[in-house]
Design a protein that fits this description.
It is a single chain. The protein is mainly alpha-helical. The chain has helices at 2-21, 24-50, 65-93, 101-128, 132-161, 166-193, 200-213, 246-263; strands at 219-228, 231-240, 267-275. The chain folds into 2 domains: 2-193, Alpha-lytic protease prodomain-like (Up-down Bundle), CATH 1.20.1510.10; 200-278, Cation efflux protein, cytoplasmic domain (Alpha-Beta Plaits, 2-Layer Sandwich). A 3-stranded mixed β-sheet has the order 1-2-3, with helices on one face. It is elongated and about 85 Å long. The chain binds zinc ion (2 copies). Residues 221-222, 237, 274, 278 line the site of one zinc ion.
Length: 287
Amino acid sequence: MASVGIGIAVLAIKTAAWWVTGSVALYSDALESIVNVVAGLVALWAVTVSFTPADDDHPFGHTKAEYFSAVVEGALIIVAALLILREAWFAYLTPRSLEAPMLGIAINGAATLINLGWAQFLIRQGRERRSPALSADGRHIMADVVTSVGVLAGLALASVTGWTLLDPIMAALVAVNILREGWHVVTASLSGLMDQAMDPAAEERARALISEHAEGALEVHDVKTRIAGRATFIEFHMVVPELMTVGAAHDICDRIEDALKAEIENATVQIHVEPDSEIKQTGVPIV
Ligand code: ZN
Ligand code: ZN
């Protein structure tokens, strides 16, 4: 909600900056802020859905909703970039000099500072809470900050040199940079939707935990992990002596499960118990 509120404030300030100068580059920057507001609303919806507990329809929970939001946000970023390119093209065909460029730069600069603080906050929160929606939102606003700084530098240069083409050129550069960022957000989220594994270092740690807590079992193999937003799913086969009681095998399972859940937040562990005839000799050694 704060993201949406800040997005609206920044949008208003940036629109004022465009209004006093008539600069297409500042117009582009303001247009990008509209995307931030819409994207903030989509992210708000996604985070709310992702915290809905598992139900009959979605027994594994709703944590993947955040990837949808990130995909939508990436798509919006790309649309904004195309709109800006279009405006830049028109300004290139009919260049005009800017009114009150320094006032516009100061106004936009204030909005950019607000964005910078908010983007850093969101990126930190996204990392700590492992929330793709918050991260995507933060990275998106950060891209906005970088391009705004470029725009402001370009406009300052244009007003000093009187080179009017610099305005549409800056707008086009803004668009290209936004396109790049949009592409990154979309591909990262799509990878999440495709059941991406834990990152290699974290998975190595999970294997070590399994190995340390599987005393009594003979082998663990076919370890598979997948990340769904905040949730982590881990599954594997555990080979035990054929005559071990179900109770004893279950005790081992509980030990491993507890160890994994103690270190990995929101982990769900599935263990398939097998007799020694299923041994593969290729699995995780038990220490
Ligand atoms: Zn097996
Ligand atoms: Zn159990």
